[in-house]
Amino acid sequence: MVGWVRLKISGNAGDRITVRHGEMFNPDGTVYTANLRGATATDFYILATNGTSVFEPRFTFHGFRYVEVRGATVAPTLDSVTGIVVHSDIPRTGAFACSSPLVNQLYSNIIWGQKGNYLEVPTDCPQRDERMGWTGDTEFFVPTAAYNFDVQTFFRRHATTLAEDAQNSDGSYANVAPDLGAGGGAAAWGDAAWICPYMMYHAYGDTNVIADHYASFQRYGQFLAAHASNYVVASLPGDFGDWLGLGGGASSSVIDTAFYAYYAQAMSEMATAIGRTSDAATYATLHANILAAYANFFNADGTFKDGSSQTGYTLAFTLNLVPAGLRTQAAQQFANSIAQFNNHLATGFIGTPRLLPALHAAGHDELAYILLLQQTYPSWLYQVTLGATTMWERWDGWTPAAGFQSVGMNSFNHYAFGSVGEYLYSAVGGITAASPGYKTILIQPVIGSGLTWANTSYDSTRGPISTAWTNLGNQFTLDTVIPPNTTAQIYVPTTNGNAITESGVPATNSPGVSYVGLSNGFAIYAVGSGHYVWSSPVTAPPVIVAVTETDSVYAGGNFPAFPANDLLTNSTTTVVANTIGLGPENHIAVSSLYDGIIGAPGTTNRSVEITGGAITFNLGAGANGTGYTITNLNTYTAWEDDGRENANYGISYSADGTNYSPVATVAYNPSPYPTIDGSDGTLTSVAVANLSGVRYLKWTFSSSQQNGGVGYTEVAAFGRPSPATTPVTVNVGPVTSSGFVLNLSGLSIGQSYALQSTTNLSPAVWTTETNFTASQFTTAFTNSTTNQPQKFYRLVGN
Q1: What three-state secondary structure class fits 642?
Q2: Which residues, at least 6 apart from 309, have a Cβ–Cβ distance to it below 8 Å?
Q3: Would you say the C-alpha torsion 744, 747, 750, 752 has a positive or negative sign?
Q4: How far apart are CA 378 and CA 687, in angstroms?
Q5: Are 684 and 547 in contact (CB under 8 A)?
Q6: Element holding 562 (H helix, E strand)
Q7: How many Å apart are CA 174 and CA 184, to the nearest integer?
Q8: With left for phi above 0 and alpha for psi between -120 and 50, is residue 680 left, alpha or beta?
Q9: How far apart are the C-alpha atoms of 476 and 471, rounded to whole Å?
Q10: Is 174 helix (H, G, I), strand (E, B) or coil?
Q11: What are phi and psi of 552, to 5 degrees?
């Protein structure tokens, strides 16, 4: 918390009372203050009289979780110390709760982090000898801030500090506002001066904050143009890069040019908002030119030419910088960059705020959920599992193994990584402004494995907006409220648009509800203000039944026969990709990784020693041509075949070999390590349900393990052929004045199809309208009838 202590203490005149403040405990139980650096964070009182006195400090505040009271001659009681919380006058506007207690604690940490750092100036931290208005922290968190609290007035004042008081003569902005001499011009940090007002415009519809500082924004554009060559900004003075990233960052060119494109797009929009139409056109042209230049950063396979990783993709997808023809490839490479870190984030201050929204934009919602719910380092919930009550500056500010990070920079109340709150509101809760000030609203909750319900509300400038959804089994329900004098589009996830109801009647017949179409598994409806209750059938996601870890699988030196029916040893299974690294003790082929034999030391069939990498198996179509239903995924690891071994890996699956979805991430680290104790190996087994139609399986092993490797390893997959499907059927409905929906059922998962049409059956000349690969047994396509001739349709399997 941030504020001070009200001290109620009994004693004698002349007693000297010392109150020290800290965020954590040292191992010996004393208050940890080393990370405060030069800040003493100490209050002193001298009792003037005998008896009980009440003290509060003046002209100071502290950031703390614990207080230490010394000098008392009378033992204090529970009511001796009261924490007085202090922050700027920012009324609460947002609320979020879900089925995960850990995520709920994360949300609480985000709220308390904002309270503690929105005190007159948005600071980076409230406790050490700094407490400065770092602009990067401010910018990264501002979308979340505007959901949590009403910050319009707060930023109306601070925008003057950012855009006027802290602008340099060359047009750049200071990295700290108020400017305390910490340099300026850094990408993302300096951009706070226009991004924060832009966010205020979107949240509240406030154009005054644009008009008041528009000239300043223009001067900043001149600064950017002076550092651009052919619309590419290679670097800016004082760049911090993806601060505190963990190896998944991006180059300065990828970052700085992305923010240049963002600037041009936002300036065109803001110029339009204040009637500067000529400027708007100029900035739109600039944006188009930067976009064309940015396209050259990509290879044909969707990777970045300079090796930029997670952060590069977060910027590219959230700012719509990926060339249209490369979105599929780049989306897969984005997923690969997550898999490279064993389905963990590796981003810093720039990449983290955009990570989950970018995965949503790239079509990887399940992967976004994996990262959100990840509990091992590095992750948002890792801090929660260690008892955090506010957001930390570092992903590893304190760990059980290593203790505290460097005292030079180790705040435990630092809200930047709390920017994930935007995803909780906008994606999990599904509440987004479709136009500035929520005049029009988008309701699109994203559901995924790990959460069964979420309740979200936001008291917008036009009134309360709320969503409350449940996802149990094959049924999704959504209760939503839209405020007066607004309209909304509601996206309802579904596997059958015809079966959706609103308030108990077919949605297309519900008063005030207009059917818009179907897109990417969502049925879309237009509504006005009111209360709506939706019910829709959905596909039950893969469910991890259990992840078990068993030691002594080779007990006593008796190496068991491998279980029967391992799918990886089928004659139809092939390895289609392999980046496995071999350990220094390895003397056999990588095929020993999946040959179904756990060998004894010194034998030719000994399990292979690996150091990381990934391997992908094509299981084939199966007996029924529909892939496989997976029940268990096993991984055996051992230290010299005579002890337990780390097991840090992720498993993903695919129906088509291109688009992969995560199944599970396993992090098993026996301690102490290595453990050559005769326990003879470890089995980690993932039991899974609702995982059908699988044709490809991928294991990705982390290389960041103790001893620099994974050790002797064997992988196996167990399951059965997925059931045969019925012939594909095509039904039409619902039909509206402007279009209709084609509902397809009986599809074979992993099968490629072409939807074709013709306007004349005699003779028939068929035109392919879309190609797709089935990822589920049913799908639907929305077709317009506006200015269209009569058509006949057919579905062709490839």
Answers
A1: coil
A2: 247, 248, 249, 250, 337, 340, 346
A3: negative
A4: 25
A5: yes
A6: none
A7: 4
A8: left
A9: 5
A10: strand
A11: 60, 35
Q: Which of 262, 269, 238, 268 is nearest to 252 (CA)?
A: 238
Backbone φ and ψ for 365, nearest 5 degrees, come out as: -65, -40
User: What whole-number distance in Å separates Cα of residue 343 and Cα of residue 310?
Assistant: 11
Concatenated DSSP letters of 206-264: --HHHHTTHHHHHHHHHHHHHTEETTEE---TT---STT--S----HHHHHHHHHHHHH
Got the DSSP string for 407-470? TTS--S--GGGGGGHHHIIIIIS-EEESSGGGSEEEE-PPP-TT-SEEEEEEEETTEEEEEEEE
In contact, 458 and 431? CB cutoff 8 Å: yes
The angle at the Cα of 102, spanning 97 to 108, to the nearest 5 degrees, equals: 55
Please provide residue 740's backbone torsions phi and psi, each rounded to the nearest 5 degrees.
Answer: -150, 170
What whole-number distance in Å separates Cα of residue 368 and Cα of residue 384? 18
pLDDT reported for residue 641: 45
End-to-end CA distance of the chain: 61
What is each CA distance from 561 to 416, 564, 600, 630, 636, in whole angstroms? Answer: 52, 9, 12, 21, 13
Write the single-letter amino acid at 675: T
Closest CA to 259 of 336, 305, 337, 312: 312
**What's the rounded Cα separation, in Å, for the pair 145 and 428?**
17
Q: What distance in Å separates the CA atoms of residue 280 and residue 210, rounded to the nearest whole number? A: 13
Bridge partners (DSSP) listed for residue 514: 526
Angle at 535 between CA 99 and CA 538, to 5 degrees: 70
- Is 498 buried (19+), middle (13-18) or exposed (0-12) by CB count in 10 A? middle
Cβ-based burial of 739 (10 A; exposed 0-12, middle 13-18, buried ≥19): middle
Please confirm whether the linkage preceding 378 is cis (ω < 30° from 0). Answer: yes
Residues of the chain where predicted confidence (pLDDT) is lower than 50: 553, 555-559, 601-602, 604-605, 641-644, 673-679, 705-709
Residues in the chain: 798
pTM score, two decimals?
A: 0.81
Q: Hey, what are 433's tokens?
A: 């402004």
Residues with Cβ within 8 Å of 330's Cβ and at least 6 positions away in sequence, in order, are 298, 302, 313, 316, 317, 322, 362
Integer Cα distance of 625 and 563 in angstroms: 25
Catalytic residues: 130, 393
Question: What does the DSSP 8-state code read for residue 601?
Answer: T
Tokens of 357: 């929204």
Chain segment 499-533, per-residue pLDDT in tens: 899 999 999 899 999 999 888 789 999 999 999 99
Sign for the pseudo-dihedral over CA of 486, 492, 498, 504? negative
Place of tokens 């966010």: 199
Provide the token pair at 98: 């879900």
Rounded Cα distance, 594 and 575, in Å: 10
pLDDT at position 211, please?
98
Q: Which two tokens stand for residue 286?
A: 């600039």
pLDDT of residue 611: 74
pLDDT at 606: 54
Q: Please say whether the beta carbons of 555 and 707 come within 8 A.
A: no
Dihedral, CA of residue 760, residue 498, residue 369 and residue 696, to nearest 10: -50
Helix, strand, coil % (nearest 5) of the chain?
A: 25, 35, 40
229, with CB counted inside 10 A (0-12, 13-18, 19+), is: exposed
The residue type at 410 = N
All residues at 6 or more sequence positions from 694 whose CB lies less than 8 Å from its CB, including other chains? 619, 627, 628, 629, 630, 653, 654, 655, 719, 722
